[in-house]
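Quick start: read one record
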Amino acid sequence: MTAGRGGIDRISQRFRKLAAERRCGLAAFVTAGEPAPEAAVALWLQLARAGADILEIGLPAEAWLDGPAIQAAHRRARARGIDAARTLAAVAEFRRHDATTPIVLMGYGETLRACGADMLAADAAAAGADAMLFVSAAPQELAALDRAARANDLALIRVAFGEDEAKWREEIEGARGFVYVPAATGGTGGADPTVDTAVRRLARLRQLTPLPLLAGFGVRTPETFAALAPHADAIAVGTAFAREIEAGLDAAGEPAAALAGRVCALARRLAAAGLRRG
């Protein structure tokens, strides 16, 4: 199977499909190499079939901005020797089987600095990734990555942190793909989002950008997903998947037979919560 055109095109096509189907999309976050290096791509493919409209793949790092469940997933991945090169090799393998599901690489500044912006963007595009989102990176590093991403038809995803509209405008100026909107403050796996606050934040951002809005941080249950679904174009879920994966590892840290089924059952419940009625 050939991937065809990717990058911005693949992301745009997916959001057009979601709009036509009156659905809020599910963006499923999984740390690369989970639940085991030899099982990772198979799980990504199963997630896509189970209702994940977008895959967010975490590049293993110290992940200090994330909560305990995702930090543990990063530690397991690093202990298995998963790095950016092995992650991109897995992305390329996924693309040989799935030409349509967008992949967003989620990373920390340490990975960006280790790889270099130009090489990381070129290698990510060659593997079949569509977008990148990096945190804890300096403004000049992100500016270099943005230039490299544009040169390779990738989107560098911008995040609308805080509540200051002036800062939002500055952050999302020239954004491509979609805008990431934190539904809760703090790291992943922290307090549940206050739905009313998140809804107001999404409504304010609608006035500032024509791009799709993807809400994330703190959404872990179908109930919260359903409450936010009428207001967001897609919602990212990470901690809930990390917890399901960890619960499905045996005493030796290897995936049990039921792990993929449990993870995909969660994806189906979340995807069903994104259906818009009326």
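The domain at 8-273 is CATH 3.20.20.70 (TIM Barrel).
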